[in-house]
């Protein structure tokens, strides 16, 4: 063997050894990552259990020695558990698009969401809540307060278990759907099908089916507007100075009305003229402030899409904060409403459609939601913001705008909608529109031919093409999985609640 052959053989052997070493190192790194993840999960579970113990201790100090004190302490612990699951699953939709667009880091998003969720619950959560979510069952048909307490206890535990399971599986679901399903199942188990107002239930189901489609269509429409009027313009900076102030002012006006309608509904009820006046004033003020801000921000900016995205970061951060505030004020009732109903019925022996909420009960709900987001929320944040479709600040801006507008219109029409469904529907709408626009847009093809004629064209190998198809299928699998989780949330929570009620009734 010649010296050259010997050197080549040595290089091959060295390459094989190096490749084997790299593989071993990667295995060790993956093992270390998995170990750290398990350790973090154990710490998170430990903190959650400590919070539930604290909730029970707080309830015991507030209730004292009463006939049903053990029952009420159990209810406080289950209410805290429900609050944790709301934070882990539902809250993630408010900040997911902003995190996926890199407008917020994960830590920054968690801090903002936790602060504004807690503020929304404590400031605008209201002193009175409905005991029967959406009026789906008639409390007058429930035989006595004891049965009513166990109906609400079963509904609360079943909805918390279902949302916990959905979070574990990585499916963003509506906690409102879960609590409605729980009340429905436990009510039917306790009294029978006659206790359910099926007209109300039918209207709720119809609105739940329509709202994500509307959110997706509106988000796609705004993205189409941005593509035509900003992205595929010759002078991108001039187009941004013309249209970005309008879009930011529109977002501010819609969020002002949204915040009044959803976030402050427990403490203020303005009519439509007042709501319209507020929106117009906010639009005008924000437009006057945004115009010089955009001009200053865009000075010296490159005429590229990447540069334009910076103009949407600040509005995205504000929208994530406002969505979290409105969610905290509105959806904290999913945890504290059944808990307050249980406490009221156990202490007074009376059934009521509305009850007052003690501050300590609202505190359990507010802290539980924020803690659940911190401990278990990042997974759903990543799914909504990164894994459904690729986000950037412009697309995330369209999602936030569509979500607020859809909820606002639905509220004015009296339709009970889920913010979770609308946000995720808007994310899917953006993704599907991108696929359609990439394939069918003449304007986009003309733009590419004109501006990228002299750039080397990337040639995709068969492996690249398979990877692109695989990624599209992954998005479809997310779509099918999430829609399936939506479809079975109400019946699953209802079935769990019925089983829990039957088990408790058998033990009693």
TrEMBL record:
GO terms for biological process: phosphate ion transmembrane transport. Its main location: membrane. Keywords: Membrane, Phosphate transport, Transmembrane, Transmembrane helix, Transport. The chain crosses the membrane at residues 43-64, 70-91, 103-125, 145-166, 178-200, 206-231, 243-261, 267-290, 311-329, 357-376, 396-415, 421-437, 479-504. GO terms for cellular component: membrane. Pfam families: PHO4. It comes from the Bacteria. It is found in: Membrane. GO terms for molecular function: phosphate transmembrane transporter activity. It is a multi-pass membrane protein. InterPro entries: Phos_transporter. Belongs to the inorganic phosphate transporter (PiT) (TC 2.A.20) family. This is Phosphate transporter. It comes from Methyloceanibacter superfactus. The lineage of its organism: Bacteria, Pseudomonadati, Pseudomonadota, Alphaproteobacteria, Hyphomicrobiales.
